[in-house]
Predict the structure of Coronin.
Amino acid sequence: MEIPLSVESSPSSPCSENNRSFQMAFKIRSSKFRHIYGSIPKKDLCYENIKITRNTHDSNFCAVNPKFLAVVTETGGGGSFLCIPLRSSGRVDPKTPHVCGHAGVVLDIKFNPFNDNIIASSSEDCTVKVWSIPEDGLKTNLSEWIVDLHGHKRRVGYIEWHPTAENILLSAGFDYKCVLWNVEQAEPVNVISCHDNTVFSMSWNQDGSLFSTSCKDKKLRVIDPRMARVAAESPVQDNLGSRAWKSVFLGDTGRVFTSFHSRFCDREIAVWDLKNMSAPMRTEGIDNSSSILLPYYDQDTKIMYLAGKGDSNIRYFEIDDESPYTHYLNSFITSDPQRGLGVMPKRGCNTERCEVMRFYKLHASKNLIEPLSMIVPRKSSVFHEDIYPPTASQIPSLSADEWISGQTRGQILMSMLDGHVTNSPKVSSAKAVQNKDSSLSQAPTITTYKAVNRPRPEGSVSTQPYAGETTANTNHRNIPASLRNIKQLSTNEEFVSIKDEPQSNGIPLEPPSPSGQSTVKKVWSPASPKSPATNGFAGGDSDSVTHVKKVWSVPQSPATPHWLGESPPNEAELRKAYFKQLEEISSLKEQISLKDKRIRQLEEEISVLKLPIAREINVQDQSEC
């Protein structure tokens, strides 16, 4: 009897159905980043002899860009951090100049995404400071800051720059508050007081219209910073432990990634949808280690890197738009634990090596900082467009005032090949709801807060003491403007409108400007009537709040309507006109770009038409010769 070595099954046979089910069960998901690996450079490319801070705070303690490397160092008395040029690898001189101006230990540092020479730092002295690093690095210790922001009552643990707007900074303190700062004006924009406990992390979405926070009260919040209100909030997560947990926005997908410890001390990750915050879309266990997982998301490649403080490995997952949303790729394991990681912006990665991410590892047991390159294995060193999509550039999409006024614009992207800009994102106004009566509700305030102690032009403000104010009480004007403005934002007091004549509910502190289109007027609103004991200030406190508001003051003329000389009667109409002007400006810009494009097309057509004419002229000249 002959036994067949192979059997061919028909499409309808049960054997073929079993084969198909077997293939579906063991189907391998294809990914271009499946074989990504980590690479450790040679010793001469590392940074040695740096006394890294031993603080137990759960921030990175490191910031890096294509120019500089900054790391918080261990110092006695006050706080300082080291900022050296990126090319200065090898053994660092112990006498290298530091940035030292904080009275307390530095807890977090972040470089400005639009200016490589600007860095912000937060400290235990309850302040946030902004520094300017010289182009060639520090020659002496830097103790003079360019901006000093006061407002938090307790230490400031985390800071984050805005991803699209210039000079907008977000800070979170251990006073349970998040403060939005306008660094350009050295003033607060909003104070977010929706948290009931310590804030553990902050993360902006891709266009900077929202940011997420993870809090010790076991709630995940998504906050609208300009409205200073919670846009989405999760219920109290009973499965969370007491350790710190982190949240990261997944680009512009409307999802948030979290890493946390469960009640049983297991480390887990979860993905949340902003449209339904009642429960996470997916939860996955990692291991049972006790260290805090720090997530680092690359929105270009959609890869999430997880590194634990005290761990010696880095896990990476690929984020997908479909269930199960997270796909484990691999782990990069080293022999030494890490204290923190600094992340190089994508524009600083080496495309010839197919480097998609570069970390700067702070060793926990050594005075060493080690660059770690995550590389996609490719045979050729040419530019690969599939792993290098357009990335965020150094060009801000909006100014600080434009963003505060309600405009939203996506990131301006650039090519990793030659650095040219690849897109022109459209500007959209704030998400205001327009009613049938043409009024806007929930629209941002157009009037911005101005610093009080800023140098004023001569003749605009009298240098003499205010009415009812003694020389001793003039010291309240020496308080930092950010501190006084933060008080006015922390309270729910409304501004008191004043005219040129005195009123009973407020004492004019400054005479109005006789001419000009806008003036800054100050109102004194004490909690109790003025008395000699208090000198007009509530409770005799020299830190009393000074309210500042821009009001219109246009000189009267026969051609000028009567209402222009006073405060605008209807604020809704002004807002409507403001956003209408923004739309007109954007439409004009589009028309100009279309006309420029048409001009270029006509020039190309003319050049094409000139070629045959020039050839005929050359042929005629040759025949005549």
About this structure: The chain is about 15% helix and 30% strand. The CA atoms of residues 44 and 90 lie 5 Å apart. The helical segments are 14-25, 400-404, 481-490, 571-624. The longest helix spans residues 571-624.
